[in-house]
Amino acid sequence: MMKFVHVILSCVLLGFSLKANIINVPVDQPDIQAGINAASDGDTVLVADGIYIENINYLGKAITVASHFLTDGDTSHIANTVIDGSQPSHPDSGAVVTFISGEDTTSVLAGFTITGGSGTVIANGKYGGGIHIFNSTATIRNNIIEFNAINQPTDAYGGGIYAFLQSQDLIIENNLIRHNSITSTNVTEYCLG
Hints:
Elements: H1 2-17, E1 22-25, H2 32-38, E2 44-47, E3 50-53, E4 56-57, E5 64-67, H3 69-72, H4 76-80, E6 81-84, E7 93-94, E8 97-99, E9 108-110, E10 113-115, E11 119-122, E12 125-127, E13 131-134, E14 139-141, E15 144-146, E16 149-152, E17 156-157, E18 161-164, E19 171-173, E20 176-178, E21 181-184, E22 189-190
Parallel strand pairs: 1-2, 2-5, 3-6, 4-8, 5-9, 6-10, 8-13, 9-14, 10-15, 12-17, 13-18, 14-19, 15-20, 16-21, 17-22
Antiparallel strand pairs: 7-11, 11-12
């Protein structure tokens, strides 16, 4: 009988732990990265309209980070929920959004304007002004990716998005990618967007 009670209790507790949470920014967490830090796989970080001056990293989490476009389909949220990466904590880490920890297509970015990125330095080059994906994948939907600029004297890749993949699973759909740039004295420049 005691074993039966343990099994039932374990199932109930497991059910509670499997429940996905919604973390509201800025109500539950002050900024998007804090929301990501607090999230667990399966959670949604739901971001209110506003300008968020930060650079975010998914940290390998299978989470959705989205504006309220996700909840109501109102496209005005895309233009009004801005991640501005123009003030990175370190100048060599200037990509606005980073997927570099083995994320897959269950890591979702949806409904933002991604702007102000300057790319992330790796070896002798700078990669991904707006979004930097390395040995990971993601789902990137319904965003505006614009006015990201990489200025680098050596190799430069992906003013808007840079993706180096180990698989073909990357999903990029229904995004507007425009007005991104690369300035480099080297001839190796790819994917301005």
